[in-house]
Amino acid sequence: MFIIVGLGNPGREYENTRHNVGFMTVDMLADRFNIEVKRHNFRAVFGEGYIGGQKVVLAKPETYMNLSGWSVMELCNWYKPEHDQLLLIYDDIDIPLGTIRIRGGGSSGTHNGMRSVIYQLGFDDFPRVRVGIGHADGQKGLIAHVLGAPEGEDREKLIAAIKDAADAAEMIVKGEILEAQARFNRRPKKPKPPKEETKADEAGKQDKEEQK
Questions:
Q1: 86, 76 in Cβ contact below 8 A?
Q2: Looking at 19, 40, 83, 135, which residue is catalytic?
Q3: Cα 127 from Cα 4, distance rounded (Å)
Q4: Active site includes 19?
Q5: Rounded to whole angstroms, how far apart are CA atoms 7 and 30?
C-alpha cells in the first residue's frame, strides 16, 4: 500500500493556484490511472486504485494547508504504510518555476504544510516531490504569489512541472526513486559570464594590428 498525498487548500477560490500544485498532481494521477478521488474521510477526499500493480491511495487533505498534518496522520494511522511508502507532493518557492526536486526525506524547509505533516507524524524520513513555483518579493508578494493563478507562459511551465511530478510519483511507487532523482533533479546550467580581457590579450591584439 502506497499513500500519495498532494497538499493544497480546498475550495474553488484556490483551484489552479500555485499553492495547489499538490492537488493538481493528484488529480492528474487520478485521471491517468482511472482512480476516483471522491470518498471523504481522514479529513481528506481520497480514492484507492493501482499504479504499476501497486495498490495506492490518492488523497487531498481538506484541512487547509497549514493543518495538513492532521489528515496525513489519520491516513497513516488507518493504512499503516512504511515510511518509504508515504509520498508527499507540494509547492516550493525556492525551486525555479517549471522544475521539480525529489528527496527521500528531510526537514520541511519553509513550507508550513510540510511542517504540520512532520510535526504530527513525528518523523521525516518519507519521500517527497517538490514542485517549483519560483520566488516572490516581500511578504505581501509571497502571499499573492502562492495564492495566485499563473497565466500564459508561466502557466504552461507549471503544467509541465505537474506532469513531471506525476511521472516522478509513478516511478517512486514502482521503487524507482533513485532513477527519478537522476532524471528530474538535474539543475539547469547557468550561462558562463563573458571572459574579461587581460592586459596580455590586449597586447596581443595590438601586436596583430601593428603587423597588418
A1: yes
A2: 19
A3: 10
A4: yes
A5: 15
Residue 47: count of CB within 10 angstroms of its CB: 18
Q: Which residue matches cell numbers 497565466?
A: 151
Q: Strands of 77-132 (E only): list them.
A: 86-92, 100-103, 128-132
Residue holding cell 587581460? 198
Report the CATH fold assignment for 2-211: Rossmann fold (3.40.50)
Instruction: Name the nearest CA neighbour of 176 among 40, 184, 29, 38.
Output: 184
Q: Which of 41, 109, 131, 53 is nearest to 78 (CA)?
A: 41
Q: Can you give the residue ranges of every domain in the chain?
A: 2-211
DSSP code of 64? -
86: left (phi over 0), alpha (psi -120 to 50) or beta: beta
Contact 32, 20 (CB under 8 A): no
Taking the CA atoms of residue 136, residue 163, residue 116 and residue 35 in that order, the dihedral angle to the nearest 10 degrees is: 150
> How does pLDDT run along the chain (212 residues), one tens digit per residue?
999 999 999 999 999 999 999 999 999 999 999 999 999 999 999 999 999 999 999 999 999 999 999 999 999 999 999 999 999 999 999 999 999 999 999 998 879 999 999 999 999 999 999 999 998 765 558 888 889 999 999 999 999 999 999 999 999 999 999 999 999 997 665 556 666 655 556 656 665 555 55
Q: Measure the CA–CA gap between 144 and 124, rounded to whole angstroms.
A: 29
How many whole angstroms separate alpha carbon 112 and alpha carbon 110? 6
